[in-house]
C-alpha cells in the first residue's frame, strides 16, 4: 500500500444510546480507491460520517494524513483535504446550481477549475442558474461530486453515488471517478452496487453489523466472488 | 381629510414601516441562521438608542458617529451573549430559544431601567437634518425622510449581500443545512455568531434612528417587538423578503388607517395576521421550520 | 410524561408515599395561618396568581402549548367582573362567574384561531392576539383606558359574610383556589387529559385514531382561559381595581415565567413559581433592587440548568 492517508483503528460510534459501530478498522492509501460494501444497516454510511466528523459520539482513532481527528470538528477535517459527497447528495435548494458549485471553499491547491468541471459535466453548465434541486437525480449526483472536485480535496468520501441512477448516468459517474483517480486523488467509496464497486476499487472492506468482517483485494475478487455475494445477500 | 393629512400620515407610516423592517430583518436573519426567535430584539433596539444618547452625553460623540458606533456596541453585546449563553440552546427545539431570549429581555430591560431610570431622555435631531422641504401638498421633515431612506438602503444592501455575494451564499447554505456546510470546511459556529451580532446590530441601528424621533426610554422597544412578531408571522419566519415587504406595507396601511380610523391603526396588523393565518397558516412567504 | 402525582399512589420508594400527603397537609396548614402573619391583601393577590399560573399550566402540561397571551383572559375578566360588581351591583359569586365565563368565551375564540399551530407559531399568535385584545380594551368606553376601573366593591360572600374583612376575602380566595387546583387535577387525570397527552406526544397517531385534535385542544384552551378569568375576577374584586395593564403582555410573560420557573410537569410547580415571582415583585420592589433582572436571571438559569423548573429539579434530586 502507498502512504496511508486515512487510518481508522477500532472506531466505535453511537447514535444517541444505540451503539452502531463496534470497532471498525480501515486504511486507505494515497491514490487508492477503497470501497466499503455490505448490506443496508451495516454501518457503511455511519463510518463515512464518522470520518467526516458529522457523527456525535465517536471513540477510537481516525488519522487523516497522520493527524488524529477523532475529536475534531468537521470543518477542521474538511480543511485537511477531505471532500464529502453524502448519500442524500445534499444539494441546497436555496442556492442555484452555480452557487452550489461555488459554495464549498477551496481547501487545497489542485482543485478542478470551473471550465474543467463543465467539460466533465456539461449538464451543469447548461443548468447553472437553476435552483439546485430542480436537477434530475443524476445531475444532482454529478453536482455533488463536482463541487468537492473544485475544492482541491484530495481524499474523497463518496456515499452510494450510483444509487437510483440509470445505467447511462452510472457510466458517466464511473468515468468521473476514474478521471479523479488519474489526478492522484484518494477515494473511499460506499457502494451497494457490487459491479460498480468491483470495477473501480483496489480493495474492498466488507462491513456487517458495525464491524469490518473481511478485506478483499482486487486480485482476490474472482476467487471470493461467492463469499462477496453472500455478504451482500445477493 | 386633506391631502396634507394623508401624506403626513403616510410618511409616519413609512417611518414606522422602516423601523419594523429593520427589526424584522434582524429577527429573520437570526432565526434563519440560529433557529432562535429573538424576543429581546426590542431590547437591542433600545440599547442602540441608549448607546447613542450616552455617546453624546458622556463623550460628545455626534449622531453620525453614533450611527456606526452604537450598532457596533450592540453587536458586541449580542456576540458576548451569544458566545456565553445563547449558543447553549441551539437545537431543534425553537421554544428554548424564545424562552431564553425572553429571560434576556427581562434582564436587559431591567438593567437599563435600573441604571438610567424609567424617564425618557431627549436626543436632538442633528443640525444637518433639521427643517424640511415644503412641497405644496405636504411638509417633508428632513429627518423623517432620511430615516426612511437610510432604512430602505440598509435593507436593500443586506438583501443584496445575502442574495448576491459569496458571504450571502454561505449564509444561505448554513441556514438550510448547517451540518453539511460545516462538512465543507465553513466555520458555521463563527458564522452564527456573526449572524446574531449583525441581526441585533440592525436593531441597534434602528434605535439610533429612533432616538431623535421618539426620545430614549427603557421601554421603547417593548410594544414594538410584538408588532414585529406579527409581521414575521404574516411574512413568514426566515423569509428576508417577506419580512421587509410586509413591514413597509404594514407601515403604509397603518398610516392610512390612522387617517380614517385612528384607534384602529394599532390593531390593523393583528387583524391582518388573523386573516392571513386563517388562509395561509405558514404566512405569506414562509416555510415551516 | 405529565404525571401529576398528588397522592402517594405510585409505588416509588417509601419516602414519597408518606411524604406527599404530609407535605400537602403542611402546605395547607401554612396557607391557613399565614394571613395572620402577612398582610392578607398581598396574599390574596398572590393566590390569584397561583390560580392564574395553575390555569396557564393546565394548557401547557396537557398539550405542551405555551401561550404568550394569557393576560387577555385575566385582564378581560378583571374588567367584566369588576364592571358587573360596580355598575350592575351583582353579588360576588355572580361577578366571579361572569369573569370566568368571559375567560371561557374569549378562550374559545382565541383558541380556535391559534391551536392549529404549535410551538413557536402558537406562542407568537397568542401573543399577537392578546395584544389585539389589549388595544381593543383601550377603545371600549367602560374600561376608562388610562385610569382603569377603580372602586370595585367586594360585596358579600353567600349574601351575608362581608368580604371587606380581609380575612374573609383571603379564605374565600383560598377556597376558590383549592377548588381550582382540584378541578385542574381532575381534568389532567381524566380520560380527557389522557387523550390530550396522547395528542401532545403523537398528534398524527391521534388523528389516525379518529380524534378531532383541534376540538380537544380548543376545549382545554378555553378551560385554561376560564380559570385565568376566575383569577382575574378575584384580583379585581380583592384589590378593587382593574386596569388595562392587566391585559398587557408583560402579565402574560409573568405567568409564563411563573409556570416555567416552578415547573410545568407538576401541580405544585406553577404555585411555587407564582409565589416566588410575586414575593420578589412586591417585597423587593421597596429595596430598590432591579426585580426584573433577578427574575430574568433566575429564569435564564432555570432554562439552562433545570429540565423542569425548580419543583421538577427538586423532585428529581430528592426522589432519585
Q: Strands, helices and their partners?
A:
The complex is a heterotrimer of chains A (234), B (289) and C (320).
Chain A: E1 4-15, E2 18-29, E3 33-37, H1 44-52, E4 57-64, E5 67-68, H2 74-79, E6 82-85, H3 97-102, H4 114-120, H5 122-126, H6 137-150, E7 155-159, H7 167-182, E8 186-190, H8 194-200, E9 203-208, E10 211-217, H9 225-232
Parallel strand pairs in A: 3-8, 3-9, 6-7, 7-8
Antiparallel strand pairs in A: 1-2, 1-4, 4-5, 9-10
Helix pairs in contact in A: 6-7
Chain B: H1 3-34, H2 41-59, H3 63-84, H4 94-116, E1 132-135, E2 138-141, H5 142-164, H6 166-176, H7 178-183, H8 188-214, H9 222-235, H10 240-260, H11 268-279
Antiparallel strand pairs in B: 1-2
Helix pairs in contact in B: 1-5, 1-8, 1-9, 1-10, 2-3, 2-4, 2-8, 3-8, 5-6, 5-8, 9-10, 9-11
Chain C: H1 15-33, H2 40-63, H3 71-87, H4 92-114, H5 119-139, E1 149-150, E2 156-157, E3 161-162, H6 166-188, H7 191-201, H8 203-208, H9 213-239, E4 241-242, H10 249-262, H11 268-285, H12 291-305, H13 309-319
Describe the structure.
The complex is a heterotrimer of chains A (234), B (289) and C (320). In chain A, 33% of the residues lie in helices and 28% in strands. Chain A is built from nine helices and ten strands. In chain A, the strands form two sheets. In chain A, strands 6-7-8-3-9-10 form a six-stranded mixed β-sheet, with helices on both faces. Chain A has a four-stranded antiparallel β-sheet with strand order 2-1-4-5, with helices on one face. In chain A, strand 9 and strand 10 (211-217) form a beta hairpin. In chain A, helix 6 runs parallel beside helix 7 (167-182). The model of chain A has no long low-confidence stretch (mean pLDDT 88). Chain B has 289 residues and is mostly helical. Chain B has one domain: ABC transporter involved in vitamin B12 uptake, BtuC, CATH 1.10.3470. Chain B is 73% helix and 3% strand. Chain B is built from eleven helices and two strands. In chain B, a hairpin with a 2-residue loop joins strand 1 and strand 2 (138-141). Chain C is an all-alpha fold and 320 residues long. Helix content of chain C is 72%, strand content 2%. A two-stranded antiparallel ribbon of chain C has the order 1-4. The radius of gyration of chain C is 19 Å and the shape is globular. Chain C starts with 14 loop residues before the first helix and ends with a helix. Residues 1-12 of chain C have low confidence and may be disordered. Chains in contact: A-B, B-C.
